[in-house]
Amino acid sequence: MIIGILSDSHFKVAYQKEVVELFKNERCEYLIHAGDFCCEKNLQLLKESNLKYIVVFGNNDRDLFDLASKYNIKSEPYYFKIEDLKFKLMHLPYHLTPDSNIVIFGHTHKFHCEYTNKTLFLNPGEVCAREEPIISCMQLEINENEYIITRY
Questions:
Q1: Mean pLDDT of each 10-residue bin along the chain, 152 residues long
Q2: Rounded CA gap, 35 and 32, in Å?
Q3: Which has the closest alpha carbon to 58: 118, 149, 128, 4?
Q4: Helix/strand/coil (H, E, C) string of the chain?
Q5: Which residues contact 131 (CB under 8 A, 6 or more apart)?
Q6: What is the value of pTM for the model shown?
Q7: In this structure, what is the dihedral angle of CA atoms 58, 127, 130, 152, given to the nearest 10 degrees?
Q8: What are φ and ψ of residue 129, in 5° steps?
Q9: Are 151 and 138 within 8 A, CB to CB?
Q10: Are the C-beta atoms of 16 and 129 separated by less than 8 Å?
Q11: pLDDT score, position 1
């Protein structure tokens, strides 16, 4: 299974479009966005990708609360399962506890990948290229006994 993970797009629609196209070309089955999409167009890009997507509100998404049902946006922390793996998705890194197989967060705009106590903690960095001069996202490939993380 291959999952594309992104966060902190802010208002950079063209950058997020580039990331979504990358993930489609890489044959991702899911897109996970850890919040701060900031505008409806970024949500439309996820929906129009025709991939399964999961998204939580970020601290800069307050103006988009009315779109929660239209785009199936969840509040954080959001727990879900894909196959036999339990995920926890959030924007703010306030719930970084090992109560899931994979914990995904955003907000810091910094790439993070750590495997501790049988839990994989991931932050894809930032799509908006605000803190770094480049777009950052990640791909997670899940195989029988391994996680393969690719940073883009």
A1: 98 98 98 98 97 98 97 98 96 95 98 95 97 94 94 96
A2: 9
A3: 128
A4: CEEEEECCCCCCHHHHHHHHHHHHHCCCCEEEECCCCCCHHHHHHHHHCCCEEEEECCCCCHHHHHHHHHHCEECCCEEEEECCEEEEECCCCCCCCCCCCEEECCCCCCEEEEEECCEEEEEECCCCCCCCCCCCCEEEEEECCEEEEEEC
A5: 109, 110
A6: 0.96
A7: 140
A8: 55, 45
A9: yes
A10: no
A11: 96
- Residue 57, both tokens: 């509100």
Please count the other Cβ atoms lying within 10 Å of the Cβ belonging to residue 150: 12
Residues for the chain: how many in total? Answer: 152
